[in-house]
Design goal:
Length: 658
């Protein structure tokens, strides 16, 4: 790679809303990690984020708050910037759609498209979803509501400008064909083709007269420009497109990655390329629609009332715990479920047990056995080859995953190396080497550990910058030894460095106590509300009482979400004869289910079984464990059980059962 190769990465620009939940931070943290990774690889990186400040929602919110729209957004934007600072987001530019340069550039773009005949004046009649700022035809509505968010839409009729989107459908289909890597994951491409492109695109309404809070159409100022047109163009106006200084645009365009949540892929992979085609501007290299952080199956969103506050989580467990969770928990392109239990367990297992413990043990041993000074390397010993080899290949493996945007897998490689180090400590037992006065071997073991930790910490830096910094400081790693280049070869540390014993990077969490805290603070209001402290007995008595209930309609049945799931782990619940605690994989989600089947099924035989679960049962606490669903079983009069299982053992988990 040439030193000067560029990398332009963007998040969507955020709607300035009052509060931010852990899900909203996902795109920004993910892009931050990729931007940092590329910087460390030597790329010239431009990482753009910002705020999407116009539109009816803001106008109404500001009115309700008794302030001007600009005052309203100024305050919210300041809060958002604080959040990004807290989460260590290393953006190169924060664009606001109220920035003067952006406003001017959008007006120029609108005029240019009008002059080219790609924008024309007509009349709009249809439905508008204010929260989504989306137009819908009658046919697109779902039960008369917005198909994206399910909320009410407004019938609108007004004079509007239209963009000739219909003209670009074939070119966009061709773009997908010629550049299959343009839109990922692949499933999103199929969605766009089948739902939008194949049925044919309608021209897009790109102006409004019924609101004031927007960028005026320069040659007809009673119209303001449609918020999505205003917003999408930020990716080029931020680089100075349409201004006197286009140097950034010339350097960084086309974008290497536009990253966003799946619900706005349509805007980025259909409407945005069409705008660019109309302007004769090259198309971005990649649009990536990631999955959602969900909350028992629902996308976490303020409007649905389920928020998990990243500021509270960061203050309590550290910013890097939050970053780690976000980067580790959502599998490639899929959704990842948030529960406090999963969040806390992740911190305990990966960060406290594996990584944190390794650093504590190693620094403590160097303190105890060598006075806090790193011994010198004593050359390669065949017993150490395996560990050294793993350390030397870490960056290569992490890069391979990161390049494919498989960030959870990349992180997993680093944690796996920490686990190998912990095993290496157990096998080599430095305390015995010390007792036996085997100074030479003891020094070699301590050196190998410190050097492997250095390699792991440098590789970890784009993901968890603060943790990496703390580790490197503890081992007095010099500036030259914190680069990617320096971790390709084992043996960077010279020996003689001061090694400081540092407090645990991630103190072990008492999960039960913390879950109690969450309940008390109502930090996850929705979860707490949903938790009924039921026990298994009244669940089963309820079940038997229901055997003779009245007939239900098909709509009633449709309310029950039955899904296939695969049991990945299972254990007996302490002090209970009846209960098993199962971990199941249901599509992209991992759930804990407590089930009263222990008298019939052993924990070991459950692992690997495919089962059917009630996926939208209100979570309930059983023996202090939060159960997120129920496993379907047949039960005879003698209370013998037989688990309902899909006949086809290979049937994908997460599938609907009807
Ligand atoms: N303003 C538009 C984007 C315009 S870009 C030209 C917008 N803003 S947003 O604030 O609603 O969303 C910002 C980002 O946060 C999006 O990528 C969105 O998908 C992401 N997320 C919001 N909630 C999320 C989850 N629960 N999980 C993962 N990402 C989520 O859309």
């Amino acid at each position: 790679m040439k030193k000067t190769e560029k990398f332009y990465i963007t998040t969507p620009i955020y709607f300035p809303s009052g509060s931010w939940h852990i899900g909203t931070c996902y795109t920004t943290v993910m892009c931050d990690c990729l931007a940092r990774f590329k910087r460390m690889q030597g790329y010239d990186v431009f990482y753009l984020t910002g705020t999407d400040e116009h539109g009816q929602k803001i106008e109404t919110n500001a009115k309700n708050a008794g302030v001007s729209p600009k005052e309203y957004v100024d305050e919210k934007v300041a809060k958002l910037r604080e959040l990004w600072k807290l989460l260590d987001i290393s953006y190169d530019k924060f664009i606001r759609t109220t920035d003067e340069e952006h406003v001017k550039a959008v007006q120029n773009i609108f005029t240019k498209l009008y002059e080219r005949g790609d924008i024309y004046l007509s009349e709009y009649e249809g439905h508008y979803c204010v929260p989504c700022e989306s137009f819908w035809t009658e046919a697109q509505l779902k039960d008369g509501k917005c198909p994206d968010c399910g909320r009410d839409v407004k019938l609108m009729k007004e004079e509007s400008y239209f963009f000739r989107l219909s003209k670009y459908g074939d070119r966009i289909l061709k773009l997908y064909e010629e550049r299959p890597e343009f839109l990922e994951p692949k499933s999103r491409q199929n969605e766009m083709i089948n739902n939008f492109l194949k049925p044919g695109l309608n021209d897009l309404c790109v102006s409004r007269t019924s609101l004031k809070w927007g960028i005026p159409v320069p040659f007809n100022p009673k119209h303001v420009i449609y918020v999505w047109m205003d917003a999408l163009t930020n990716y080029i106006t931020a680089l100075g497109y349409g201004s006197d200084d286009q140097s950034l645009f010339d350097r960084f365009w086309p974008a290497d990655i536009h990253m966003m949540g799946k619900e706005i892929v349509r805007f980025h992979s259909v409407i945005w390329p069409a705008f660019l085609m109309a302007l004769d501007i090259p198309i971005p290299k990649k649009v990536y629609g990631h999955g959602w952080m969900t909350f028992f199956g629902d996308k976490i969103s303020k409007s649905k009332g389920n928020t998990v506050d990243p500021v509270t989580l960061s203050a309590r467990y550290g910013v890097d715990a939050v970053r780690y969770y976000l980067l580790r928990e959502i599998p490639f392109g899929q959704d990842g479920n948030y529960t406090n239990q999963i969040f806390l367990s992740r911190i305990n297992t990966d960060l406290a047990n594996d990584l944190g413990n390794l650093v504590s043990r190693t620094t403590a041993m160097i303190g105890q056995y060598n006075g806090g000074v790193l011994p010198k390397s004593s050359g390669i010993d065949p017993r150490d080859e395996e560990l050294i080899d793993k350390a030397e290949r870490l960056l290569e493996r992490v890069t391979e995953f990161t390049d494919k945007l498989l960030v959870p897998d990349a992180l997993n490689e680093i944690i796996k190396l920490a686990q190998s180090c912990n095993k290496y400590i157990d096998i080599n037992a430095p305390w015995i080497l010390n007792k036996n006065n085997d100074k030479q071997r003891l020094n070699a073991v301590l050196y190998n550990l410190a050097e492997t930790i250095r390699i792991a910490a440098v590789t970890l830096a784009p993901f968890l910058p603060d943790t990496a910094k703390k580790i490197l400081e503890a081992f007095s790693v010099e500036a030259g030894l914190n680069s990617f280049e320096s971790v390709k070869k084992f043996g960077g540390l010279k020996g003689g460095e001061t090694v400081a014993k540092i407090p645990p990077l991630f103190p072990r969490i008492d999960i039960a106590k913390e879950l109690q805290y969450f309940e008390d603070e109502a930090i996850k209001k929705e979860e707490v509300d949903a938790v009924n402290p039921e026990n298994i007995n009244n669940q089963s008595s309820q079940a038997s009482a229901n055997t003779d209930v009245d007939m239900i309609s098909i709509e009633d049945f449709a309310k029950i979400r039955l899904r296939t799931a695969r049991v990945t782990a299972c254990e007996k619940v302490e002090k209970s004869d009846k209960l098993l605690k199962l971990t199941v994989q249901c599509g992209g989600e991992t759930r804990t289910i407590v089930s009263g089947i222990a008298h019939k099924y052993a924990a070991t035989e459950m692992v690997g079984k495919n089962v059917i679960i009630v996926a939208n049962l209100k979570p309930a606490k059983l023996k202090g464990i939060l159960s997120e669903g129920m496993i379907l079983c047949a039960e005879d009069e003698a209370h013998n059980l037989s688990i309902a299982m899909p006949e086809d053992k290979e049937f994908p988990s997460g599938s609907t059962v009807r």
